[in-house]
Structure of Zinc permease:
Amino acid sequence: MTVLLLILSVITGVFLGKHFGKKEKLAKNLLILSAGFLITICLNEVFPQVYTSAESNNLGIFVIIGVLLQMILEALTKGFEHGHFHHHSEHNILPAALMVGLFIHAFIEGIPLANEEHEISPYLLGIVFHNLPISFILGAFLFNRKGESKNTSSYPSLLIVALFALASPMGMLLGNYFHPNLQPYFLAIVGGIFLHISSVIIFESNKNHNIDWTKIGLVVSGVSLALIMHLFHQHPH
């Protein structure tokens, strides 16, 4: 079920991006909604699990490592995770670099899934909710470029989608070979990644620094969804 959800979240997002990718406002709203959801999962689920573990003393440095790692990956993805694909010409983003950046990002997120106690955990749903807007943007970029026919898909584009869809399941597979005591360290790194991505999306300056009530409403909606899920999730004692 976990692997299926991970793959379907990418395929669904890419499909929507291919057919609705020209609606830039929709992509941005999905990102903001997911950012509210993701930062709540990060602060309400991931970090408590990290800092209540037996190895919690020095885990803050691994959160920082996650933040820095995501900053490095964005040099490859050019801010795809933030919806910045429209700020760059096609020549500024190499499919190979994009593929590597997104693959590493998703692969690392998948590692902690190997030791999750519940098959459908808040952490998993955070990744799934996070995958949808990124995949939407990816599908819009890959299949709506100039000269790209709507009825044909280049093999490099399909390869990028396939690798991105399989990255987290592959990370989960590798996670089975790590000792469970390392779980807090991987969660701390992913928590840093989540924190960086969601905070950048949420706190990006609005035009002329005016209050954007739509953005605030979407963030609150994402936070509310995560909190509702938190209420119904059974946490281990």
